[in-house]
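Let's study my pick:
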Amino acid sequence: MAVQRELLSRTARNAVRGELTGLAKAAIAEYWENEHFAPDPNFTPGEGSVRKQTFDSYATAVDWTDADHVARALRVFETLLRRVDRDSRRDGGGIPTDSLADLREAFARDGVRLDDDLRLHTARVAHLVVRTDMLTKPSGIQAELERVRRFGADYPDDAIGAAKQLIEATAKVVLLERGLPVDERLDLPALVKQAQHALHLHPTSAPPTASGAAPDNAESIKRILGALTSAAIGVAELRNRYGTGHGRLTAPTGLGPRHARFAVGTAATWCELMLDTLVDPDAPWRRANAAATSAGGATST
């Protein structure tokens, strides 16, 4: 069985650890716990000051191969570094230039950028493994959308890849939640259409407009749904040409933050409509189910 590679190296972690000399032990523990980490109960102290031992006790409890753990740990590191810098500036200093250079180099090796405000930005968005078994609640995909929104503009090709990935994950979650089979052989256009049909959100799913019909049956809504279907499929086509995930020999050129925001915004609109409809008690798919159940009951009596 292959060993999973750590998403953030020991080199980067130790670079942060080395900057904690002037920070109180309680502050270090507080910042870890603010991100819902706890110290490893089996931690065995090694070399280093009490501050570094405190840091190590939490760091050893992190699963560095897990994208969510690493995202939260990076927020801890960001807070720690900003606190160290702020405290140092009271003495007229700040984190030394050489130390900042070392930190930036260490993070850069792992695809993480440390900016001038000591904020950490990761380029790993598109490399998230979307596990549908872990995303059977809408909040899971919504959290991933927030990550893409936060980091995508810095890495447009990654953002486009992640946008496509989130559309695919959302479609699969919808099918699973509706108790329908997920065919892994389907391409994204077929998957998008199948998921929309499952929620009666495909323009061909809604019944003809009638007087007093629900808004979901209106022709204007059908036209929007048709355009949204095309937009979601367009994100996949954009990813195939420009996004990450195809082992290109050369990096795509010409992409900028506006392309990232456009792709992510399109994915977000589609995903949020699907998730909102999935949990809406008055959604059209629920009304259709209720009508079918009622008709079935009437027939059997």
About this structure: The longest helix spans residues 219-242. Strands lie at 112-114, 120-122. Residues 78 and 156 are 23 Å apart (CA to CA). DSSP finds eleven helices and two strands in the chain.
